[in-house]
Amino acid sequence: MFDGLIAFGHSIWSFCDPLSLGLILLSSLVGVIIGALPGLTATMGVALMTTLTIKMPSNQALLVLICTYVGAIYGGSRSAILLNIPGTPASAASCLDGHQLAKQGLAGRAMGIATSGSVLGTLIGMFFLALFTPILGNLALKFGAYEFFWLALFGVIIAGTLTGDDPLKGWIAGLVGIFSAAIGQEGIYAYDRFSFGSRDLAGGFQLVPALVGAFGFAELLMAVREKAVPVKINPFDSVIPKLKDVTQYWRTIVRSGLIGTFIGILPGVGEDVAAWSSYAAAKRASKEPEKFGKGSIDGLMAAETGDNACVPGAIIPVLTLGIPGSAPAAVLMAAMLIHGVRPGPMIMIEAPTFVYDVVAMMMFATIGILIYGLTLTNVLIKVLMVPKPIILPIIFVLCVVGSYAISQRLFDVYVMLGFGVLGYLLRRLQYPVAPLVLGMVLGDLMEKGFRRGLVLSDGSLEPFFTRPISAVLWITIVLVVAVKLPGVRNLLARRRAK
Amino acid sequence: MANEIYPSSPRRDLQGGIVWVLFGSLVVVLSWQMDRMTSQGATAHTAPGLWPGLVGLVLALLGGVLVLRSWRRAQQIGWDATVPDDTDYAPTSSFALAAALFFVYALLLVGRGLPFWLGTTIFVSAFVFLFQHARRRAEDAVARGVIVALACGGLTALVVTLVFEQLFYVRLP
Question: What is the interface pTM, i.e. ipTM, of the complex?
Answer without folding.
Answer: 0.92
